Input
Amino acid sequence: MSFGFANAALAGLLALGIIPPLIHLVARQRPSVYAFPPVAFLRRIIRHSMRVRRPREWLLLALRTLLFLTLILLILKPVYFPQPGEAAPGRQRNVVVVVDATASMAWNEGAQTRFAAACAEASQILSDLGAGDLANVVWVRAEPEAAFPELSPNHGQLRDLLRRAEVSSEPGDAASALRLAARQLEGREGAREICVISDFQKTAWEPFPTVPGDAQIVRIPVARAEASNLAVLRVECEPPRALVGEQVRILAELANYSPQARKTLVSIEAGETRQSREVALPAWGRATASFRWTPSRAGMTPVLAMTGEDGFGGDNRRWNLVEVEDRLRVVLDAAHTETAEAWRRAFLALGWVKVESVAALASVESGPPPAAVFLSAWDGEPIPGLESALRNGTALVLRPSDKLDLARLRNTGLPGLAELAGTARFEPGGNHRVQVTDPNHPLFRVFGQGEHGDPSRAVFRGRFAIPAFPTLKPLLTYRDQVPALAAAGDRFVLWNLALDDKPGGWTAQPEFVMFLGELLLRLRAPAAGGTDSWLVPGMPLVRPLQNEVEQFDLKLAGPDGAAVPFALRPGPGRTVAVSHPTRIPGIHTWTMRSEPVGHAAVQFPSVESDLRTVTSPPEIADGRSTAVADGRSVSTLRNGLPLWPWMLATAIALVLLEPLAVAWVDRPVPWQPGKESP
Amino acid sequence: MLTRFLTPEDLRRLESFEFAPKLLAEGYLSGQHRSHRRGSSIEFREYRQYTPGDDPALVDWRVFARTDRHFLRTYEQETNFDCHILLDASASMGFGTPASKLAFASFFAAALAYLVVRQGDRVSLTLFDESVRTCIPPGTTSRHLHGLFAALEAAEPGRRTATGEALRRTFPLLKRKGTVIILSDLLDDPAALFHGLNPYLHRGFPVHLVQILTPSELELDARGLTAYVDPETGTRVVAHPTEVAAGYRDAMAAHIRAVRGLAARRNVDHTLARTDGDLYGLLDRILR
Output
């Protein structure tokens, strides 16, 4: 706290304050001398009256002196600075206004959003700057950006930007924004200030980021009241890659960011289906609503979960994508082995499997990868497109051959195959029986009740002698513990089951087709959708180009149908399209000649849903920060509070008071005769 | 006979005054004044019970025969009269215009002395301030009167007042009991004054206090801001008369009341004289 004078050059006038006392002392009336014997009586009276009158006269003198000083101060224009060290009128100021434009600022607080209030405060701060002061605005977003490349005296343009600014749906990077603001102030002469205007959401501003440099930091919170918010936090689809007619389970998780338990209606839209359910949410708690949906049409299908509108609508909707296929694509090798034939017949029997040849793997780059590749006599020779397909999520079911060096499986890039080595030697003949290693494995769940038979009820004539590798998890084993069916991770199955048409063989059992179908469904890759997307506004969308043509005809549209610009950049192996940062949540669609070729669900950032703010504006350890109530307070902080109106009011009051005081001083002192004579 | 204080007109007017009708005197000559002392050509006064030490010759035996008690007959005797004028000539008595309190008191003393001597009585004059400045013993001749007038004319305001102390010092100088007339402004501690009067009262001196004050002392003059200076002590007080007038009036009245009250309790006559008042009226008040 300090004081200064707008007209400091006239400070010498303060010395005139000595005038009233001087006049009071010097200009006293000269009394005439009069010899008078009964002075003792007078002295006693005077002594009595002076006890009353002298303080009155001093009071009058003080009043007049105060009036005189007030008038001088009125001329000097005193200014009050709440913060020490700010009393520097005329000093150039460099101000960066950091405005929080994150999604939480969209909370509607009364008549306006927090963001609108922040922009108004920022505009106020800029309005109070002098003509020679430099300023800039930095937006707190996922990628903070400054309005101007460097500080500028063009405050009007900045105010215009603030007028037209809109709140984003992005999370914010407060630390980067403050660093950017500090960089703008580097090397600037004069006072340096960073004014941070934000709701100071707890999840983003606690603890307050470290700010480099020595700029003074002023924090202006715009959150006036606690906000109660409901948000859809997550949408999960199981299976993420479904077949037409297959039941999909949709889980919508909601969060209640308020101290009261609430009930709300949560709805989902998937394809042509719309379902609603009431959900009870405990205070500050979460709840999950489960829906079942059976897709009837193939294609990438958006699933939207939403809840009732509240004061913060951005997080009331959340999307997911379910890739619905009419048939599951399976690649089968061309070897004419009994096993391959048995697989083919079984797939045909399933009806929802589309069998393709290995040649189809060559075109996997331009389309969705097949669900699985079944190889019955692979000797390790390269298959075009196989590695690419495996990289993109295709599962591999392999029946080894005598010529296959198992070490070559490392090249597939599939997890869990690094330790495989040696060759598998086929041992023909014999009547081998298998057993289920883990009955609780999802693969065998359907057989658990016995309604669908026993998948291990078969005799196998011949098998490969395969050692038990630690990374291969046996699903079925022969009685001597030789693995019959082993898996490495979710996408590799080593098939050591000899299939033939002989009586008692597995293919003759009805369980075989069902088991193969179950195996195929378990091996489906979740890559295309299902899981809640982690993409949030502010992040770019990336798409590797599938072919050369795409670079000419590829387009990206946002949820509102507006085109989202993107740039082509060379990527590893092929060109990738990188979009500008996305702005709004929703389904973004890549199109080629008006045909959708890819989708991406951009979600509202969950971190922005919890609107709780820090209880008090965050403190900075080095003491450079100040918290103020609003932009006008910043002006007061910077320019000081002019005290001349108070001085004027005081002077008027003193002028009115002075005659009253004079009358009071001059009023007779009541005399009480003494009890003793002189 | 003419002096500064007594003009022929004054003398003519004084002819109609006679001194001491209400005063008692103890003189050595039989005269017109009654005395409690026994003597010849006596006039019966009262009976008094005998007390040891009384002259047995004064016992009235006829009363003893009737009552079987010893009573003395007392008589009043006309004798010559002593008048002791004690005049305050302190600095404060010099105050007052056109005539100061001292001048007023001197005129009064001269007139009184003239009347006493004219009646064949004796008059003494003592001028005092804080001590006895002049003491003219009692006398009855014209020459004595002239000397007394000369002393009055020569009197100038002296130093500060200490009436009580002056009275104590004056008392041994008075050989014979007589009427004591004190002319003073009595701007002194009344208690000290009456303390000084104690010997006189004890011996039975009739005492008359004439308190002489100027109108300005009784009521402050309307003046501007004034530095009031005490001529005796030099004490200086600056005040605006309008501000202190009421208080002063009350204080002075209280002082006079205090003096008057003490005088009444001690059986002392007290007369307040204003210097702008009628001197003959004052004489009339005191002498009748």
In short: The CA atoms of residues 10 and 89 of chain B lie 23 Å apart. Chain B touches chain A at residues 91-92, 95, 185, 187, 189-190, 216-217, 223-233, 235-239, 243-244, 246-248, 250-255, 258 (CB under 8 Å).
